[in-house]
Specification:
19 helices; 410 residues; 4-stranded mixed β-sheet; alpha+beta; Alpha-Beta Plaits; Hypothetical protein af1432
Length: 410
C-alpha cells in the first residue's frame, strides 16, 4: 500500500469526539465518490419511521469503525505486538471500505436489486474496482478483508463476532435511536484485546464486558433491528421494488431512471454483476435519495397496486405485524388480504402484497466457526462457551426464530 505518511486532519464525531484521518490514502478514499455515496445511505434503513433520530449515515459508521480500529491497533502495539505501517494502513482501509456494497436503505433492499449476492461480496467487487484505479494501493486492505493476510487477527478486527464494525454500530445505533440498552463498554473491550498465535483473544478479566456486549446486541435486535414496525416498513420497501419490476416487465409505463432501470427491467444475478463493470458503476450511483424520488413519483402512478404500496410508505400506513412461535394460519392470512384487496378495489394479484407471513431469526452469538476466544493469565485460551461459569450466557443468546404475520391495518 505504499509508504505511510501521517496527516493532521481530523473530523468531529458525536460519539468519539475527534477522529484522525492519519494518512493521505485515507483522505483520498474519503473523497472518492464510492465513499461519498455512503453519506446518502441511512445506516438503519427504514428505522427512522420508528425512531425519528435514526437518520445517521453509513459514512459516519465507516468513519467510527475506522476510529475504533485505530484505537485497537494502538492498544495491541502498546502490548508489544508489532504491526507494520503497511499492515496498519491496510486494516484502516479495509474497515473504512467494508460497507461499500450496501444497497439503498441498507438491509431493506439487500437481495432485491441483485439476486444471490450479499453486500459483503458487492463491497469486495467495488474495492477491487477502486484498487485498479489506485494502482494497487488497496492490495493489503483487500488481503485483510478477504482473510488472505498473514496476520489473521487483522481480518478478525474487520469481520468477526467481536469486530470494530459491530462495536461501532451498536454504540452508534443506540445513541441515535435513544435505546440505552444498546450501550456497551467499548473502551474496556478494546483494552482487553490481545493476540495469541495470530488470533484475536480477550483477556479473562474482560469476559463480563463481552457478556454485556452480547446482551446489548440481543436487546438491540429485538428493540431496533427486528422491531415489528421496522420489519413492516422493510417488507413494504421490498414489495414496492418487486411490484415496480413486475410493472416494467409487463410493459406498464412507470417513471424510472436509467440506472435503476438496469436492475428492474432485467434483474441481474451475481454473475452478471461480477462480469459487468457498467452495472457496478450504475449500482454505485444508487442511494436513498434516488429510491425516494421514485417512490414519490410512483405514489401518483396510474398502476393501482404500486400506487397503493407507495402511498402506504409515503403516509406511513404500515401493515400490522404479529410475532408467533407457531406457524401462522395461511387461510386466515389469505382471507385478510382478500378483504383488503376488495376494499381497495384491487384484484387478487394484490393479495400477497397486502397480507403475508415470514420468519425472522436472531442469532446473537454463534460459537462456530469463529468463537470469541478468552485467554487467562496463564496463557490458556478457551472459547467463550467453554467457560463453565459463563456458558449460560451463550445458551441465553442461542438462535431464536419467530414467525411473523403482516396484516392490513384495517
Amino acid at each position: 500500500m505504499g509508504h505511510y505518511h501521517l496527516t493532521n486532519k481530523i473530523l468531529n464525531d458525536p460519539l468519539y469526539g475527534f477522529i484522525r484521518l492519519e494518512s493521505p490514502l485515507i483522505l483520498n478514499l474519503l473523497d472518492h465518490p464510492l465513499l461519498q455515496r455512503l453519506r446518502y445511505i441511512r445506516q438503519l434503513g427504514m428505522t427512522y419511521l420508528v425512531y425519528p433520530g435514526a437518520t445517521h449515515s453509513r459514512l459516519a459508521h465507516a468513519l467510527g469503525a475506522m476510529h475504533l480500529m485505530q484505537n485497537a491497533l494502538d492498544i495491541l502495539q502498546h502490548k508489544g505486538y508489532r504491526i507494520s505501517p503497511d499492515d496498519r494502513l491496510g486494516a484502516l482501509g479495509a474497515i473504512l471500505l467494508h460497507d461499500l456494497g450496501h444497497a439503498p436503505f441498507s438491509h431493506a433492499l439487500e437481495g432485491f436489486l441483485i439476486h444471490d449476492m450479499p453486500h459483503e461480496e458487492i463491497s469486495l467487487l467495488l474495492m477491487r474496482d477502486l484498487n485498479q484505479t489506485m494502482d494497487g494501493a488497496l492490495d493489503t486492505a483487500i488481503d485483510i478483508f478477504t482473510n488472505q493476510h498473514e496476520l489473521p487477527f487483522l481480518h478478525e478486527l474487520v469481520s468477526s463476532q467481536l469486530d470494530m464494525d459491530r462495536l461501532d454500530y451498536l454504540s452508534r445505533d443506540s445513541f441515535f435511536t435513544g435505546v440505552t440498552e444498546g450501550i456497551i463498554g467499548v473502551d474496556r473491550i478494546l483494552q482487553m484485546l490481545d493476540v495469541h498465535q495470530g488470533k484475536l483473544v480477550v483477556e479473562r478479566k474482560g469476559v463480563y464486558s463481552i457478556e454485556k456486549y452480547l446482551m446489548a446486541r440481543n436487546l438491540m435486535y429485538w428493540q431496533v433491528y427486528l422491531h415489528k414496525t421496522v420489519l413492516s416498513a422493510e417488507y413494504l420497501m421490498g414489495h414496492i421494488i418487486r411490484r415496480a419490476r413486475e410493472c416494467r416487465m409487463g410493459g406498464l409505463p412507470i417513471q424510472l431512471s436509467e440506472d435503476l432501470s438496469l436492475f428492474l427491467d432485467s434483474p441481474p444475478n451475481a454473475n452478471d454483476f461480477r462480469n459487468n463493470c457498467d452495472l457496478r458503476n450504475a449500482y454505485a450511483r444508487l442511494d436513498d435519495a434516488e429510491i425516494m424520488v421514485h417512490l414519490k413519483a410512483w405514489a401518483r402512478s396510474s398502476e393501482p397496486l404500486l400506487q397503493h404500496l407507495c402511498g402506504q410508505w409515503r403516509d406511513r400506513m404500515l401493515s400490522r405485524v404479529a410475532f408467533s412461535s407457531e406457524q401462522p394460519d395461511q387461510n386466515r392470512i389469505y382471507e385478510a388480504g382478500h378483504r383488503e384487496a376488495r376494499r381497495l378495489g384491487l384484484d387478487d394479484l394484490a393479495i400477497p402484497y397486502l397480507a403475508h407471513a415470514g420468519i425472522v431469526q436472531n442469532a446473537v452469538y454463534k460459537p462456530e466457526p469463529q468463537p470469541i476466544l478468552i485467554q487467562d493469565r496463564q496463557g490458556k485460551v478457551q472459547s467463550l462457551e467453554a467457560l463453565n461459569d459463563h456458558a449460560y450466557c451463550v445458551d441465553l443468546l442461542a438462535e431464536r426464530r419467530q414467525y411473523t404475520q403482516y396484516l392490513p391495518k384495517n
